[in-house]
Design goal:
- By secondary structure, the chain is mostly helical.
- The chain has 2 domains: about 270 residues, Type II secretion system (T2SS), domain F (Receptor-associated Protein), CATH 1.20.81; about 80 residues, Receptor-associated Protein, CATH 1.20.81.30.
- Strands 1-2 form a two-stranded antiparallel ribbon.
- Strand 1 and strand 2 form a beta hairpin.
- Helix 7 packs across helix 8, helix 10 packs across helix 11 and helix 12 runs antiparallel to helix 13.
- The longest helix is centred in the C-terminal third of the chain and has 57 residues.
- It is elongated.
- The N terminus is likely disordered.
Amino acid sequence: MAISTIETRTLKRDGLINEIVKGAHWSSITIGKARKVSPGEIIFFMDQLSLMLETGTPLNKSIQAISLQIKNKGFKNILKDIEKDIEEGRLLSAAMGKYPQVFPTVYTSMIRAGESGGFLKEILERIVALEEKHQKLVNTIQAAMYYPAFLSIFAASVVLFIVIYVFPKFGEMFEDIYSELPITTRMLMTASNILTSYWYFILLFIGMSWFIAYKFIVTDKGKIYIDLLKLKIPLFRDFFMRIYISRLMRTLGSLIGSDVSLLESLTICSGAIGNKVFAITIDNIRTSVEGGKTLSQPISESPYFPETVKQMIRTGEDSGMLHKVMPRLADYYDTQTEKQVKKITTIMEPVLLVLVGGVVGIIVISLILPIFKLTKSIH
C-alpha cells in the first residue's frame, strides 16, 4: 500500500504540502476562549432537535428550548445566533454553515439535502447515528490504550526513582569495588551520575526537542509527513487504513443516502477523512467520476482499497444500493478495527508486564549482588 508515483506527483504539483483542505473536526472543537464543544454536546443537540421537530415544535422554538439546557457558554451563544438567523428567514443549514468549526460540512450538506427534500428530522437522526458510531470506535481505541499507557508511565517512574534517589546512596559504598561490579550495576551508576549531575541539561534538551517536534507537526508539511507515515509503516498501515475506509464508507453512504450528489459527497469526504494524503486518493476518484467513470472504476484501480470493498462497491452500484452497502462496509471495518485493538492490547499487556518485571529485576539484582560482595569482603 505504498504511496503511488502518480499521487506523489499530484501532491507536489498541487502544492498540497503548503495548502491543503482542512478536515472536518470529528473531535472536540475550540470556540474562542470558551471551553470545547464536545461530540457529546453535538449529539445531544441533534438528537433533541430531531425529537422536538417530531413533536411539531417550530424550528426556532426548538433551538431556543435546547439552548436553555446547554451549559457551554460558547455553544449556547452559537445556538442563539442560529435561532436569530432562522427567525430572520434563513435555512438551518445556512445558519449552521456560519460555524464550520462546530458543524462540519458533512452535517450542513446532509441538513441542506434534508431541508430541500422535506425529511429534516430523519437527516438529524442519521447524523446522530453517524456521530455515535464514530465516537464508539474512538472510545474503544482510547479505552484499550489506557492500561498499557498507565503501566508504561508507572514503570518509567519507578525506574527513574530508583536510579535518581536510590542508587546515589549506594554510590560511595560501591566505589572501592567498582571494577568488580557487574556490568549492569556500573551502567546504572553511570546513568544515575548523569541524571543527578546534568538533570537541568536533560530537561532543557527534552523541552527543546518537544518544542521543535511540535512546531514541525502543526505545520502543513509536518501533518503531511505524519499522514504519510500512517500509510507507509507496516505496523500501523493496516490499522489506519481500516479507520479511513470505515470513515469514508460511512460518511459517503450517509451523504448519498441524504440525496447529496456523488461529486459533492466525494468533495466533502476528501476534507473529512482525517488524512491529507488519503484525501488525494479521494480527489483522484472524484476527478475520474467527473470524467464519466463509475465510482467502482477508480476505487478498483486504487491500491488502498481491499478486494472486499471493490467488489461490494461494484455490487452496490449495479443494484442501486450504494447508500446501504457503504454503511455495512463501515460496520464491518469498525468491527475489524475493534478486534485488532483488542488483540494488540491482549498481546501488549503481558509483554509490558514481563518487560517491567525484567527491568525491575535487573535493577534489584544490580543492587543486591554488590552488597553481597561487600559483605563477603568484610568477613
